[in-house]
Amino acid sequence: MNEPVRILQWGMGPNLGGVDCLMMDIYRHIDRSKVQFDFLCDHDADKLAFEDEILALGGRVFRVMVSQHESMMKSRTALMSFFRDHPEIQGIHVNANFPYALPLKYAAENGVQLRILHSHNAGTAASHDHDDLAHTLIWCLREWQTRHQISRYPNLYCACSKAAAEYMFPGKPFTWVRNGINTVHFAYDEVVRSATRAELHIAPSTSVIGFCGRFRTQKNPLFLLDVFAEYHRMVPDSLLMLVGIGELRSLMDERIEQLGIKDSVLYMGSQRDVSPYYQAMDAFLLPSLYEGLGIVYVEAQCAGLPCFASVDAVPPEAKVTDLLHYVSLKESAEQWAHEMRDALEKTGERRNHADDVRAAGYDIRDVAARLQDLYLNRAGRA
User: Fold this and answer.
1) Domain of 82?
2) Are residues 227 and 157 in the same domain?
């Protein structure tokens, strides 16, 4: 019996991010008798978000990588030694939110057949997080150097949207890999909705505006709070449900106090399963500054939620149903709130949109099958 083709995945960390969940969902749905995943991470990395499950499914976790800040020499020799010691690895798949290609360089030099660079974003925090000019210039210089590697070492480019491809490898031909979801799991379920709202002591009449993501600059959470405060003035019987954690939590707490909405905000923390919370919501709000796609928009649409996104940032590929509404970030928080209220007043009875999401090609089973064929054709046995 042939051994499965082994594909080394890079990009999973200790937190439950969108890319981490996508990688794991693909791993669950591929035929692991034909394709197996291993995971590459930093030598001092904390336990990965799904490490126990990875090991149970037959995958391996390699703590190898050394930061160039820590040691330029070790950052090179660690990867060179790793690929030399593991000739069974036939492909590497770098899942990147920012331009990065170092593992691909050493994979190429050691004869790894398939070298994928997969863009999951359409911007970086550099232009948004750093007011310091020197910091921004250093980041831009590193990005410029990395782009030279990007043009040399991958032999297949993938992206979740055209915007994500143009950001990371402009002008390169690429394979569109949809950010698949488990459409059965995220489909609207009235029973789960009622049970979740009862558990959280939310009255049936209360309008629940929801957010799911990391509390960081990219997701624009402070503006989100401003929008909800305006909506709450229009619709007093309303709550904001925040599913996630992140570095901006303290600033968000301050803004909530300033806006006087503390009693109308629910922090749900980091959740391994976010589907029950989508069911409990009445609308989904995420005014991101930039997105490669935004898998949460697809999940929320599958759950039958009207969604409100930044036309300036969220690519058209995210609109898989007529539930996604675009609003410009140039508009005020008050205008966003008006758009939400007006759209919700016109929304009919909530229904299951899983078939629409599947028809658009976003079911995780279909995505995993297409990736499996790609791995076998390019790195192993067709």
Assistant:
1) 5-180+363-379
2) no
